[in-house]
Amino acid sequence: MRDFNLVLTMEKIHKQILQARFPENSRIVFMLSEMEGAEFPVDDPFGATQEDYQQTAEVIDRLIENGMDAILRYTKTGLPR
Predict the structure, then answer these.
(1) 26 lies in a domain?
(2) What's the rounded Cα separation, in Å, for the pair 78 and 5?
(3) In Å, how far are 24, 68, 70 from 80, measured between CA atoms?
(4) Which range marks the domain in which residue 68 is found?
């Protein structure tokens, strides 16, 4: 974890687990949705229909596009540790 400036998760529980496991790096862990200023989980479509996979891909694409400024800022400069 110390080698990274940013770690993104899809669900809040994953964020919480990483923050608890690596408290010294907890400030670099975010949900992907937080990169666009929101906080909601991205559903895992495992075992679902092709349409569900497509919808999830569209959500991820939108989050990356809308959050790219924040993603680049964190990956280039990092956060105070």
Answers:
(1) yes
(2) 5
(3) 11, 19, 15
(4) 7-77
Extract the tokens encoding 6: 């940013």
Which tens digit of pLDDT belongs to each residue from 2-31? 888 899 999 999 999 999 999 999 999 999
Query: Residue for token digits 């862990």?
Result: 29
The residue among 37, 32, 30, 28 whose CA lies nearest residue 4 is 28
Distance (Å, whole) CA 29 – CA 51: 29
In a domain, residue 56? The reply is: yes
**71 falls within a domain:** yes
Q: How many C-beta atoms surround the C-beta of residue 17 within 10 A?
A: 13
